Amino acid sequence: MPMCCARTTEAAVPPPGDTTCDAILGGRLALHQPRKGHRVGHDALLLAAFAPEGARHLVDLGAGVGAAGLAVLARQPQAHAHLVELDPPTAALARLNVRENGLASRCAVVEGDVLALARPGGPAAPAPGAADLVIANPPFNARATHQTSPDARRAAAHMADADTLAGWMLAAYRCLGPGGHLVLILRPDALAPLLGGLAGRFGAAELLPVHPAPDAPAVRLLARAIKGRRTAPALLPGLVLADAAGHPSPAADAILRDGAPLPAQR
Description:
By secondary structure, this protein is α/β, with parallel strands linked by helices. It has a single domain, classed as Vaccinia Virus protein VP39 (Rossmann fold, 3-Layer(aba) Sandwich). 25% of the residues lie in helices and 27% in strands. The strands form three sheets. Strands 3, 4, 5, 6, 9, 10, 11, 12 and 13 form a nine-stranded mixed beta sheet that branches. Strands 1-2 form a two-stranded antiparallel ribbon. Helix 1 runs parallel beside helix 2 (67-75) and helix 5 (164-175) packs parallel to helix 6. The longest helix has 13 residues, at 88-100. The protein is globular.
């Protein structure tokens, strides 16, 4: 079981008083993360749980402190990963989390812009077509319709321009080899741009709505698709996170605490 150990000296890492070290997946991973602002929640673990089994080379776009990518590695011991993060202090925390969870031999942090991946002049890794799995929790709040958070890093993690999702999906397409899987977690109102971004590039899409409680509208949409396929999309039965009394559902508890996977892909 990973332990939160003494902070390794690294200039870009926020001071210890500005961060916490928190156990996730029932203690299987320990994550250093900012005390305030953008913090790891259910989205990262749901994203990891929707990743198909058998991945060899994973790329996590906008990885933050590494929660989703490291959760995939914890469940899939054969996989290697690149965690891509633009913000230098956040990328430094991701590197710390990689080391302290004993995953340095299987995981590297790439500090750079998602939109520059697998393009001339972009980061050297990941190479074009090298990945068989790309996961992402893209920024989801449109700048024109949502108030920007006063915390700069939280704002950067959540605020999107009109073409943000399309750009991230194109980056995933460049990184993936034929037959590779793209897995996203989005707001349900991103369904139309999601389908537009998949068209002509990805098929066999599986869409799984996530509901906070029974009879409540979905608050998240998990999407999984395959590069180069043309099969029509399928809507999967929804995941309910809690019962009417607010207690975690057995399915959610198994995913969030035990690292159980969501339904297998077609």
